[in-house]
Amino acid sequence: MKASILRKEILSLVVLFVCSLAMSAASPKNYLYDTKEENGKIVSKVIFLQEEGLLNKQVKYEFTYNEAGKVAEKKAYRWNAGKDSWDPYYLITYQYNEDGNITTVYGMWNKKKKDFSLNSQTMVVLATNYEDIFS
Q1: DSSP 121
Q2: CB of 29 within 8 A of CB of 12?
Q3: Residue pLDDT, tens place only, 40-77
Q4: Which run of H or of E encompasses 16?
Q5: Using one digit for the tens of pLDDT, what is the confidence trace for 69-80?
Q6: Radius of gyration of the chain (CA)
Q7: Rounded to 5 degrees, what are φ and ψ at 97?
Q8: Count of alpha carbons within 13 angstroms of residue 68, beta-carbon side
Q9: Alpha carbon distance 122, 101 (integer Å)
Q10: Exposure pattern of 82-100 as b/e (b: 16+ CB <10 Å)?
Q11: What is the pLDDT of residue 3?
């Protein structure tokens, strides 16, 4: 009898725990954005997570543009709360080819080499997708 009651209590606790995990995973996060523009172009964007009334820095993006006014580079940083500074995360460069394609080169920050050479990848996309990529 006691074993049966104990099993039911343990099962109830497990179900309660699983439900609480599901609820916390399903709750939406509240992000806020601080966007800086120059001459109608976004030059930086900082993303904050609002938790318990506080704004916590998460990610920062910096953009550079080519002579035609198209995005040439997107650099991302992660906030390091321990050092109270932005750590480099990844870099994407965009080259606009004469054949109508955009060549993108992606590289993650390599701490040892202090460059964006880690996991470097190249991809070619159609220039007609420019608005989809940068909207």
Answers
A1: E
A2: no
A3: 999 999 999 999 889 999 999 999 999 999 999 999 99
A4: helix 2-26
A5: 999 999 999 999
A6: 23
A7: -90, 155
A8: 7
A9: 13
A10: eeeebebbbbbbbebeeee
A11: 58
